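Running this now, will post back.
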Amino acid sequence: MFYTCQVMAKPLRTPSTQIGPGVLRAALDILDAEGPDGFTVRAIAERAGVAPMAIYNHFDGMGGVLEALWNQGFEMLRDAVDVATNDPVADLVSAGLGYRAFALANPGLYTVMFLHRFRSFEPSVDSIHIAARAYQALVDNVERCQSLGLFPRASAGNAAQVIWSACHGFVSLELLGINFCVEREGTYALLLETLRDGFR
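Update: finished.
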């Protein structure tokens, strides 16, 4: 009598070194395609091809995923606005253009950073410092402009807040599809010129 032994193949597991990047890519894909409404641990796990428990093991749940995206976003934003040449005024305009380019190219990250409050996420002190460094790049640029006589009636921090608020408002409306200008790039350039010249 012959007996046939069937060896069950073990399911392939995603290597642990790939889980983190894969989960973050999946999370951004969902945010870019669906926004916050479809953003759940189960949806991220399914798109990343991992078990939901892997997200809890590697990120301590949704909050950890969001913090990783927050940190990534603000590090990228700092790179986009940290412009320093021998022309501070031109650098200020370049930083504004970089801000919009970053937001339009990374709507999912921008959503995590600015457009939606996720109940499962409160940024840590370290993450707040990362965000603050991105803002400080703008403040530093304003201070360089002040050495040339711009923004004489405002502190660098206050002027930077006004500039950021205006750029953020324009970009946020654009991302939300609430933008009625005929030529968006030209209108945004006009906004930057108005901010630059209005403080003289």
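The CA atoms of residues 63 and 92 lie 34 Å apart. More later if anyone needs it.
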